[in-house]
Amino acid sequence: MLYWSSIRIFNSEGDYYWAHGLISDATYELMNSVCNSSQLWRESITGSRFDACVVVNKRLSVEFPKAFDGYNVIGDTCTSSGESQLDVPGYPFRPKFQFSSSTPPVQAALDQTKDSENIDVCVKEKSSQYLNRKDVQEALHAQLVGVTRWTGCSSVVNYDMLNLEIPTVNIVGSLVSSGIRVLVYSGDQDSVIPFIGSRILVDGLAKELGLNATVPYRPWIEDKQVGGWTQVYGDILTFATIRGAGHLAPLTSPKRSLALFAAFLSGKSLPEALPN
User: Fold this and answer.
1) What is the pLDDT along the chain (276 residues), one digit of tens a residue?
2) Cβ-Cβ contacts under 8 Å for 240 (sequence gap 6 or more)
3) Domain boundaries, the chain
4) Which of 121, 176, 181, 193 stands the most exposed, by the fewest C-beta atoms within 10 Å?
């Protein structure tokens, strides 16, 4: 059951895209009927070419603009960057379904973005510039032998992308079974690892372990605002979303991320909404 759930988690991307108005009804239908996210991913890695997946990939390439951050769908991207952050080779997260150099990539912008807490949309670009300053490198005692430029993505570290489909939920289950509290959280504006998949994972794992909901699905509060939603199983396995957060939740929603993390470390429940 857990392996089936892991595939469903992978394919929750399509559900998220459609529910957030990122793709058309027609493309969503195709992703559910002829070529889903896991197939697109597998073919982009293996180099195989299933005609239906080529069609879906082309539709996604049109419907996803390059100036779009899939890691934070409500965020802006840095427009002043001299080098495109869309074409970083070997990026270890999820280089979206890019079949060839002639196919427009459906890769999320890697620039970090802002939210209500005024995050600098060009922080990634500025960080790169800062860490490439000679005086900074000397102050950090950086080893520069054979390195011409510091980059956020290393070509030295190689990933077997097909391993992304190997389910690891059993590892989480073993932690819970041994009495270790586990928190699985997602920013609700992250389309790369959507909260839909995280929610499916936690619910499926709870059923597998025979854990009942001890805290029903409810909103949690931070600074008198809804910080997200949460559900707890067996007082040991917690699912939570961070409202307004992207893939890098502490960057896009630092206050809410800190509140979530602090509650988890202290073993306390997330603050509840005040009664009406």
Assistant:
1) 454 456 777 889 999 999 999 999 999 999 999 999 888 888 888 888 789 999 998 999 889 877 788 889 998 888 775 333 333 333 333 334 444 433 333 333 333 334 445 677 788 888 889 999 999 999 999 887 877 888 877 667 777 777 877 888 889 999 999 999 999 999 999 998 999 999 999 999 999 999 999 999 999 999 999 999 999 999 999 999 999 999 999 999 999 999 999 999 999 999 997 666
2) 183, 184, 185, 186, 220, 228, 229, 230, 231, 260, 270
3) 2-160, 164-266
4) 181
pTM given for the model: 0.80
- Beta pairing partners, 232: 215, 238
The secondary structure of residue 85, as a DSSP letter, is S
Class at the top of the CATH hierarchy for domain 164-266: alpha beta
